[in-house]
Model the fold of this input.
Amino acid sequence: MYDHDLRPDRELKIECRLDSDTEHELHRHDLLEINVLLESEARFRLLDRDYIGKPGDVFLFRPFEPHYNLAAEEGAPIRWIMLLFSPSIARLIPQGDRLLYPFYTSRSSPLIKAHSEHARRIQTAAAAALEEQEQALPGWEAKRFLHFVDILVSAYRHSLEAAEESTPGQEIKVETGVVSAVEYMIRNVTEDIDMRQLIDGYKRGKTYFYTDFKRTVGVTPNQFIHRMRMQIAMHLLQTTGKTVTDIAFDCGYHSVHYFNKHFKQYRSVSPSEYRSRYQRSM
Done:
């Protein structure tokens, strides 16, 4: 696994990709990513599972989530449209922070199946955005951005519907302040995060902050931070020879005991045992 420094021009990058790899090292970055599969079956590979994608499927990769797109079969290259963008782009859209909800919640699957109305709309908008970019006619950047907003709205609506299906009768309300707090946590995931600062910035008090955060994201603020750190730790255990102590500190923990405790809660084994099992499976 490697960290990818993918800085899109002007906060947004759209391109059509072609790849025939059936195995590849995972990478991660702090950008948000949407992939629209156009040709052949793919494996959307994450840390601990693969999703099988078919043409027309849409996949959302969350920030710092180690991943890679792989061809499902040799000799059948996959072609897809990739959108990479910075969370800051949401500030250009009315209530845009809410549209980032699909990338932060654990309530819905990151895979949007091709038969979904939302997947079809995303594919149409992605193709139109790419066409505007390639033709580069006067005003193309504005037109591309409008198609991009359509993509975010469709992904957002899909996630809300999926979340409501998983918790019938419970309407999911996305608080802009919660999404801003999540962005801060992502940017500072391996640093000491001042929860009091986030609560004060929310301006509704501690109880409302924790309640609204869990309702929006699906986990508590602390669980969200630990989940992000565990993703980083798992990859360091898989891909480096660093000691467990060094990995604990790299992930933002000041106590190895505390790190071990959370890792075992997350993976049901100790970090050392996780590394050993991974190495035996290779």
